[in-house]
Design brief:
Shape: globular
CATH superfamily: 2,3-Dihydroxybiphenyl 1,2-Dioxygenase, domain 1
Distance between the termini: 33 Å
Order of helices and strands: EHEEEEHEEE
Radius of gyration: 15 Å
CATH topology: 2,3-Dihydroxybiphenyl 1,2-Dioxygenase, domain 1
Number of helices: 2
Strand order of the largest sheet: 1-4-3-2
Length: 119
């Protein structure tokens, strides 16, 4: 199995939305920047870490079913930065041991979570 995870692996995690133009400002506020590149007029791609990409694509028939979680070093700082851009969490979960997940729902109901270990 480890051969599969060797050099050259790129991960593209997809999120389908009904209307890309309507979703774009929300994702820019959530992630704090415009897409790293625009693959085509209805698909934006953000590099969230080296070789790890979040793809937002207009595909109305599949919109609202994504569940993505990004684990970050400083969850509180990330949540505060998003709040400063007008994005508030929809839910928060705390797991055994204190690991937390803060959940955001985009306008289509896609779940984008940010997780972090206790401080």
């Amino acid at each position: 199995m480890t051969e599969f995870l060797g050099d050259g692996l790129e991960l593209f995690a997809g999120i389908c939305v009904r209307d890309y133009d309507a979703a774009l400002p929300w994702y820019e506020a959530l992630l704090g920047m415009p897409p790293t590149f625009v693959a085509h007029p209805t698909e934006g791609v953000w590099e969230v870490a080296p070789h790890r990409w979040l793809v937002v694509e207009q595909r109305p028939e599949r919109a609202g079913f994504a569940v993505q979680t990004l684990f970050v070093d400083d969850l509180d700082a990330r949540v505060a930065a998003m709040a400063s851009r007008g994005i508030e969490p929809d839910n928060e979960e705390t797991y055994e041991g204190g690991t937390r997940k803060v959940i955001y729902l985009d306008p289509d109901g896609n779940e984008i979570g940010f997780g972090g270990n206790p401080g």
